[in-house]
Amino acid sequence: MRRVLASSLSSPRKGGIVDGLPAFVTKTQSQKERGSSASLHSDMTTTFTKTLLLSVCVLSGSATVGACGGGNSPIATGGGAAGQSSQPGGSGAPGGSGAPGGSGAPGGSGAPGGSGAPGGSGAPGGSGAAGANTGGASGGVDLSPAGLNPTDCAMPGGTPIGTATGTPGTWQNVTPKELTLEGSMFNNDNFGVQDMLVDPVRPSDAYTFVCHQGVWKTTDYGATWKKINTGTNGAEIDGGKPWGSGINSNRCRDPNTPPTLYTLNGNGKQGFWKSVDGGVNWARVELPPQSSTQYPQDAYSIAVNPYAGGHLLMGFHEAVGLVESTDGGATWAVRKPADDGVSVYFTFVDTGDPATTAKTWISVGQSGATFRTSDGGATWKQVEKLTHAHGCSQLFQAGGGVMYVPGADGTQGSGVYRSTDYGVTWMKAFDGNANNVIGTAKNLYASYGWANAGTVEPSLHTAPRDPGTAWVTQMAPAGMTNGAKGSAVTSDGTHQIVLSGNWNAGIWRYIEP
Fold first, then answer.
1. Residues 221, 249: Cα–Cα separation, whole Å
2. Residue 219's domain is classified under what CATH number?
3. Please, what's the b/e burial string for 290-327 (b: 16 or more CB within 10 A of its CB; e: otherwise)?
4. What angle do CA 407, 394, 431 make, to 5 degrees?
5. Looking at residue 275, what is its pLDDT?
6. Which domain holds residue 426?
7. By C-alpha distance, which of 266, 327, 275 is closest to 301?
8. pLDDT tens track for 258-275
9. What was the pLDDT predicted at 109?
10. H or E element: which one contains 226?
11. Which of 49, 157, 191, 382 is in the most buried spot, having the most CB atoms within 10 Å?
C-alpha cells in the first residue's frame, strides 16, 4: 500500500476532458437483453406494495456505496453503492414527498435536459459548469424538477420479471466459470470481485465489477453472469482494479433504456469512467490535478445522490481528497475533506428531503475517523472514531434516520454501530469484525472482508431488522473465503435476494426464505 503525508489542498479547480464514447445509444442491444419488458412496462399501475417498494435497493455507495432513488426503499451505501433509505410510509411512500405528482418530473438526471445531459445542470453556465461554484463547499446542485430524479412514474423501481431459481436459506456460489480468481494472476494484482449494483428499474438485472476482467451482468437475479464491456474502451476497463462503482439512481427510467454506470480503474488507466449504455461502451474523464494530495487520477470510492443520479462524490486511493460532480461526472470540483484520512468512503445521508440530502454526507476513512457534514463539506464534525479495513466500507440506511456503519477503532471497539438520528450520534449494535452491512425488508446482514488475495474469515452475522440489535452468527459456507466488498439486495416479488461480490471468493447469492 502507498502511504502519504497529510497536506492541505490547493485552490479548487475543475477538470472535464471526455473521450471515447459515442454520443448515441442503440436500442438493439437493450431490446435483446430486456426481452418482453416493454410490454410489462406498459401494464404498470400505480399500486405500491411493500415488496415492490423494497425490490431494488442497491447496497452498494461507495457507493456507492451504492441506487434506490425516489425515497421508497432501504439502501446500503458506500463501496460504490448509491441510493435511498426511506422505508414504506416514509418520504417516498404514496402521499410522501417522493410520491407521484411530487417534484422531479421527467427530464431529471440522465434525461435530455437533466443534470448530466446536454443543456442540464452540467451545461455551460449550469450548476456544474466550469466557473460555477468552485469553492470549498457543495453548492451547484440542481434541485429543480429538471435536476432531480423523476418520481411520477407509475411504478418506481420497476416490476419483477420472472422468479429467482435456487434454494432459499442457503448461500450459493454463482461465480461464472470464465472468471479467474487466483490472486497470482495479472502480475499478482487480482483481488477478484468488487462492487455489486442492482438496476433501479429492472430488479432481475445487476452488475458487478471484477479486477482486470471488466463488467459482468446478470438478468436472472444473479443465477448466471455475462461479461458486457465489449465496446469502446472495453480493454481499458479490463486493465485495472475497479476500486469503486455506482449506478444512476433514477428509479423512473424507462426499463428499455440501459442504466448509466460509473466506475474507477486503479492500477490501470486511471480517472473517472462512465457508461451510458449499461456498461458496453465507456468514456474517461480526466480529474482535476489538485483532486488529492497525490495520485489525483486514482479515485477510490463513488457515492451517488439518491435524489439526483448525476450528483456524485469521490474519495481517493491512499490519499487525502474529495471531489464533487453535479453533472454526471462531466466536470468535477475539489471540496474540503473531513480530515487527513486516506482512502475515504463518502455517503449521502438520505434525510428524506432532496435539499438537505444533497449537503449531508458521512465519511469513513481507512485512517482518521468517521465524520459528518450538513453543509456540503464547508464544515465537518467527528461523530465516531470508526475506520474501515483495507479496501471496502459499506453502510446501510434503514430509513427514518436509522443507519448502520461497520468498522474498527470505534469508541466501543470494532463492530457495527447504529444511529437513529441520521448519523449524528452512534451506539454499538454488535461486537466483532465487520466491514459491510446490508438489509432486506426483514433482516440485516453483516460480513468482514478486505482487499487481499488470500483468505479472510467472513464473520457472517445477521439480525432482525427491527430492532436491529439482536445479532447472531451465521455459518459461512465452504468456499466463502472472504467477506463482501460490495453487496446489493433485490426482489423477484416473492423473495428478497442478497447479491455479494466477495473478492477472490467470487460472487455469492442468498435467497431469503
1. 19
2. 2.120.10
3. bbbbbbbbbbbbbbbbbbbbbbbbbbbbbbbbbbbbbb
4. 30
5. 98
6. 157-226+246-258+304-511
7. 266
8. 999 999 999 999 999 999
9. 36
10. strand 226-227
11. 157
The answer to whether residue 199 is domain-embedded is yes
| Residue 237 maps to a domain | no
Decide if 87 contacts 217 (C-beta within 8 A).
no
Q: Is residue 263, in this structure, part of any structural domain at all? A: no
**Which three cell numbers, joined as nine digits, stand for 403?**
443507519
DSSP 3-state assignment of 397?
strand
pTM: 0.77
Q: What is the mean pLDDT of the chain?
A: 79
User: H/E/C letters for each residue in 230-260?
Assistant: CCCCHHHHCCCECCCEEECCCCCCCCCCCCC
> Which of 300, 287, 250 has the alpha carbon at shortest distance from 111?
250
Above pLDDT 70, what percent of the chain? 72
Q: Which residues pair with 282 in a beta bridge?
A: none
430 neighbors 463 (Cβ within 8 angstroms) = yes
Number of domains in the chain: 1
Instruction: Check if the beta carbon of residue 177 is closer than 8 Å to that of residue 46.
Output: no
472-473 vs 345-348, strand pairing mode: unpaired
DSSP assigned state of 456: -
DSSP string, 343-395: S-EEEE---SSHHHHTT-EEEE-SSS-EEEESSTTSS-EEEE--B--TT--BE
Pairing of strands 283-285, 272-275: antiparallel
Could you read off the pLDDT of 345-354 as tens digits, one per residue? 999 999 999 9
Cell representation of residue 462: 445477521
Q: Is 247 left (phi over 0), alpha (psi -120 to 50) or beta?
A: beta
At residue 42 the predicted structure's pLDDT band, cuts being 50, 70 and 90, is very low
Distance separating alpha carbons of residues 336 and 198, to the nearest angstrom: 31
Alpha-carbon span 107 to 119, nearest angstrom: 11
Q: Is residue 207 part of a domain?
A: yes
Q: Could you give phi then psi for residue 444, rounded to 5 degrees? A: -110, 150
Instruction: Say if CB 28 and CB 351 are below 8 A apart.
Output: no
